Amino acid sequence: MRFVDEFRDPELGKVLAGEILSLVEPGRHYKVMEVCGGHTHSIYKYGIDDLLPENVELVHGPGCPVCVIPMGRVDDGIAIAKQPGVIFTCFGDMMRIPGSHGSLLDAKAEGADVRMVYSPLDALRIAKRNPERDVVFFAIGFETTAPSTALTLKRARAEGVPNFFCMCNHVTIVPPLRALLDSPDLRLDGFIGPGHVSTVVGARPFEFIPADYGRPVVISGFEPLDVLQSIQMILAQLAAGRCEVENQYKRVVPYEGNLRALEIMAEVFELRPHFEWRGLGFISQSALALSEAYADLDAERRYEVPGVRVADPKACQCGEVLKGVIKPWECKVFGTACTPERPIGTCMVSPEGACAAYYNYGRYAREREVV
Amino acid sequence: MTEAPPSSREERILGIIETARAKRPRFRDEQVTMSHGAGGKATQSLIEGLLVPALENDALAALDDAGTVALNGTRLAFTADSFVVRPLRFPGGSIGELAVNGTVNDLAVSGARPLALSLSLILEEGLPAEELRREVEAVAGAAERAGVEVVTGDTKVVERGHADGMYVCTSGIGAVDPRAEMSPAALRPGDRILVSGSLGEHGTAIMLARDEFELEAEIESDTRSLWPAVDALLDAAGPSLRCMRDATRGGVASALNELARAAGVAMLVSEAAVPVHPAVAGACELLGIDPMYVANEGKLVAFVAPDDADAALAALRSVEGGEEAADIGEVRTEPPAMVLVDTAFGGRRVMDLLAGDPLPRIC
Q1: Chain A residues closer than 8 Å to B358 by CB
Q2: pLDDT-flagged residues of chain A (< 50)
Q3: CATH number of this structure's domain A71-173+257-302
Q4: Which of A210, B41, B75, B196 could form a disulfide with B176 if both were Cys (CB 3.0 to 4.6 A apart)?
């Protein structure tokens, strides 16, 4: 595959691994957080960890869109899905996230019409093909996916599709990062910045991290060479005593972001005063709702939903995993009560979740030999 | 009390997980969901947690692609398969052709030359006769190509709204070839893992044919009879051919995992050696799917003793459709029941059964 294989070249990987090794001080332990779940997935899928020195530790961050959805929102979604006549659409991994009484996949088995889509435009197409039914799209994601939801809503309005609605769960990346940096229980040396989010918001919103907290940030692409190079750039900053926002993903991310996308988002969405994050609790101004101008497309206004906050199961430590405070395997229920086939927490469901990535790909300690 | 260092704590937890996974899975779900049909862990819990214990017998418990029955000294292989694919026709094949090849292949990878098939049709009220006729002809054509006769069958009709046009069930019987001495227990460390061609074509072709992704690519289903490939392998490797699997639902990754568990061995796959066509690789990349988990309908995985692996590979490549056969890895001892991959990028990771994502019906 052109434009992909170039970024998966094992020989270049070895060169970067050598440069990384030459940048670390022996005896110093480095903790680098990859903010985005897409990076977590890449790290495990390609075995990037295996190319790093022992004293460079990758800490998985909160940027997994499915992982941060709290149980109460899943329950609200299921309540809408069970309304007569509704076709409920969502991304595939969302279907297996447990609510307090089962998942959307269970609701589907019980008779709800729940369909997996790959993009909000697929949901809009279903709405046009089924004019007698209400079609609800369960929107999730950071600033990465919010513009495509916004565009879909604009198109639904422009084309006069009267039966398309959106349950908006879009979240924003900066507030949880700030919350994380404010929490005392985590010491990090630097951040691998979220590449896809940055294509929309640009690099500027991350300047507070070096400015206020003295930590380097490198916005990174998702191919294995991207991730390795970003780690190399972070370590180079640390070695030189620099601390700034750098952009490794220049082929895609403009420093100022995508102004057109930001404009459309500003038109279609407004900030919620506060939003509950799975395991992290309520964070102010951290999520988006449909703006007044799009209120008639808002599924939360069209349907009665329970809107009840549901406490996470007691044993679940997704919050600590999302904050990088504990490793997936340090969670009390990891791999025993909570497995990908029978998940308790969200991090065990999404392929971008740290627990699922570790369980499915990394469940094999470096020290163990294959003989 | 002193706390163990992190690495040994991690080891201990991984050990607990592996022990738990080695046990027979239980079927604890309250209802059937689409996951139970996806060929991953949920399917495994349905088969090993409900069906095998309820019907307990040695032939079934072996969990091979076909059960073996002895009759007056002759070993017969017997198998059944159902086809619920949507759409009925897709690039490279159709449900009728699939129904013949699927059952023929379950027999073939059990080392049995297919002798006879049954054919049951469940038809939806309103199905155009033309479509039915076309599929019956597809069955006849595929059976002729596979050298097998359809000797019995059944028809049922259900009300409109059921059965998506038609469902097809076939069963097949075959005589186990005297050259074949295969079982998972025969796997030994050092055995080579061969695949009979490029992977992921059938599943990808179906997903694109469903027209849900607005992706266009020229990918055709690989549906074909595997008996010629098996025949050639038995000639080339004989008793060195340890075991085979038809890499259908769940793909090669699932077949490897099932055998690693059944035989208590480790497997190490070299990702760079796995043959995948660029169009399949590209479509899977976009859909976020690993081709190793995508269904094939004309590809087998064979385990061959190292000394005869090259001859076996040459035999596979000499058969039509097997030109891209490849040696993709090796059987190891530790860690037991696990499949690991050396990634093309130079790392190493686990390749487990999928938990059971709600994938579209592909066979």
Answers
A1: 92, 95-96, 105, 108, 116
A2: none
A3: 3.40.50.11740
A4: B75
